[in-house]
Amino acid sequence: xxxxxxxxxxxxxxxVSLAAPSANADTTTVTPKITLVxxxxxxxxxxxxxxxxxxxxxxxxxxxxxPLAGLPVQILCSNACTGDTVTxxxxxxxxxxxxxxxxQMSVSASIxxxxxxxxxxxxxxxxxxxxxxxxxxADSSVVSAASPTSTFSGRLxxxxxxxxxxxxxxxxxxxxxxxxPSVSATTTTSADGSFSKTVxxxxxxxxxxxxxxxxxxxxxxxxxxKSPMVFVDIHPGFxxxxxxxxxxxxxxxxxxxxxxxxxxxxxxxxxxxxxRDGSTGWTDVTTVETLGTFTSKFTAPAVPAYYxxxxxxxxxxxxxxxxxxxxxxxxxxxxxxxxxxxxGTLNVRANVxxxxxxxxxRIEYSADGKTGWKTAKSGTVTGGFSTxxxxxxxxAYYxxxxxxAPYYKGSTSRVLKVGRAPTRITGLKVSTTRVKKxxxxxxxxxxxxxxxxxxxxxxxxxxxxxxxxxGTALHLYGSVLTGTGGRFTAKIKATREAYWMPxxxxxxxxxxxxxxxxIHVALR
Length: 524
Known about the structure:
With 524 residues, this protein is mainly beta. It contains two helices and 43 strands. Strands 1, 2, 3, 4 and 7 form a five-stranded mixed sheet that branches. Strand 14 (172-177) and strand 15 (183-188) form a beta hairpin. The chain is elongated. The relative contact order is 0.07. The model is unreliable at 1-26 (pLDDT under 50).
């Protein structure tokens, strides 16, 4: 319940006028409590605020009672407002307008004790503040006696109430080099907060930090901002060199260059250049920054071409490397070998150089080794290969070929003649197809080779194989030797019904062969 202290006093006076107070009468004393709150933080964008005070009754048990209205409150300010006396309204409130005038301020409120009201005090400290930042860089981070100037550029900004960085124009920026001898220069920010100043620096043998500083000078600036400062490293001049430049050109046209920069004390830009003749028309390809070794990869702008690396003088001395010439990679095929087994399977192997080059390779064959070359197999290889394929001809000439491409030269292996003579078994006969168990039957035939016509093949082993009726597993019965005219005779003891076949497994110069069908011999 709101209490009006003036009304309470009137009641007391009225009581006094009606009767003399008893010696044991109680006097009621109200204990006030003052609470101060600022409506907003003080910033560069918002330089005024309102401090609201609330006066309530502090109950004996420590709890907060109702508001105290009509109570005079003495206001004292430190760098914030003028002193004044205000009176609480019906809600126990009072307000004090505050304008920021210094980076630290206070508002205090006090109530003087009376017969019915105890004294009370409260203080609110205010700290006006806005974040500020300065950025700076130098167009040349290296100075020397021959090139002592560098242009410092940057921007001075503060963080506004909408959380964006906004410019601080018309502020003096100080640029200082410690030396010895020391160097100092000033410049002023423009409307967008930017600044730029060319300064003649003092060359040094060691890296120095040049400070870029803004000191708030006006009362307004010192109220809201602290002094920001950044440092820009300035390095002494040096004489770099570029050595050990090397390069390669891949089969896909990628140039890989590598080199080493010596004599530098900081990272420097290295420009890769190319020329078609190695003396004129040098053109930039790409730029890398390095302190030591560097590598660069890019698509070849021309083939052939000459490449070099250059450091352009910039406070430090310039340097140019020697050049490397990159032409189509020369390829070669060595250790080319081809064999064919009796079953007609070719085994081909070879080495391809350079060993790190990935290229497509074709295996080709020709009947005469001169014309009509055809591709038997192709694939992409790196360094070497080994592969198998079916022989396209009984006897043929073989070679491996790398076809020329835009970034490498083609090459061809040696030519090898590889093959075997075709063979066949003809005149195949069996003495009987029904035989008594335990008795014998014979299989005869003629083994021939082809050499400008079919001719007898003598002195060769012919294997006799069979599988029993109802089965598929082959078994070797034995072998016979071909005699005059390539004829062979196999005498076989019948133990079960089976399917028989003579097979020639092939020889050093001959392909294997066998009839197309089995001979069925049954038991009776």
